[in-house]
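FAQ: What does the model actually see?

It sees only this:
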Amino acid sequence: VEGFENEVVKGAEKILSSPKKKPIVIIEYLTPKRGNKPHKQAYDLLSGMGYNSFTINLNGDLEPINNIDNYLISQKLESDNIVFTPVEL
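And it is asked to produce this:
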């Protein structure tokens, strides 16, 4: 959605905050120097709806991540796909 991540999450708020089974969300998250404000806003909304964030390691497993910006900078990445799963998963 190229910069409209926040709007998409807002538009899906009913589904994402439903007490029923929630979907998994994947966002290509950009580094701060690439202008990641919409990604941060989407992260805040998802976190508020009970989602946790993860990276995908080389084995294909999910690894929890608390500070996406620091992760991207420390790994010298311009962006990465971040997986958001509901807490109940």
